[in-house]
Specification:
One of its GO terms (molecular function) is transmembrane transporter activity. The chain has helices spanning 3-39, 44-59, 62-77, 85-111, 115-123, 128-158, 170-181, 185-211. By secondary structure, the protein is mainly α.
Length: 216
């Protein structure tokens, strides 16, 4: 197999990796905010449920969660699993896992805001929603961006865990190529792909941090 063919196959896997990455962020970021609200809720039942959810998601391996989401419908409900379900299982497992981490980051950011911010907004005639969206949220985003960046970078590397349910992302492709060629080159190429991907993500997140620097 030529080097170009190998890179082409790894590139195909990389596109799948990027897809997992983007879909996870699209679903987990807003879900994490909802979970954070639940975690801060005055309702004991909602607060307890979200606390347990966060504890389970953060306290068990993501790989195990992937296996549960993928095989669960069959073992629990006897539902036949199609090969196309792999993609859904990966996104679901990643989204609910990362939502738990983002929820705690959101919660920390929201609870760190001075009470005076809310009081000042109330004096100005802002409602609760207006206060949160226009005053609190922009400052929270600024405060939590470094923590979110760490999680996002971790997500890039965690996408390789999709191999556990035989989903053909880049790491799976690299492993298959290495086995067929009996060479370390596919792994080296994959490592370079991951590094470049992480570098781009870090660059983008740093750009957003600078754009938000007007909040102090």
């Amino acid at each position: 197999m030529s080097f170009q063919v190998m890179i082409s196959q790894l590139g195909s896997g990389m596109m799948t990796t990027i897809q997992i990455f983007l879909l996870t962020l699209i679903f987990s970021l807003p879900l994490g905010l909802l979970v954070a609200f639940g975690r801060m809720s005055k309702n004991v039942v909602i607060r307890t449920i979200t606390k347990i959810y966060i504890s389970i998601m953060r306290g068990t391996p993501l790989m195990l969660q992937l296996l549960v989401v993928y095989f669960g419908p069959y073992y629990i409900f006897g539902v036949n699993i199609s090969s196309s379900y792999r993609a859904y299982a990966v996104v679901i497992a990643f989204a609910i896992n990362y939502a738990a981490y983002f929820a705690e980051i959101y919660r920390g950011g929201i609870e760190s805001m001075p009470v005076g911010q809310y009081e000042a907004a109330k004096v100005l005639g802002y409602g609760k929603t207006q206060t949160f969206v226009k005053i609190i949220l922009p400052q929270v985003i600024k405060r939590i961006l470094p923590s979110v960046t760490n999680e996002v970078i971790t997500l890039v590397k965690d996408t390789s865990l999709a191999f556990s349910i035989a989903y053909a992302e880049m790491f799976s492709q690299a492993k298959a190529l290495a086995a067929s060629q009996k060479s370390m080159i596919p792994f080296v190429a994959a490592a370079i792909f991951y590094y470049v991907f992480n570098y781009v993500v870090a660059f983008i997140m740093e750009f957003f941090e600078k754009k938000m620097s007007y909040y102090h």
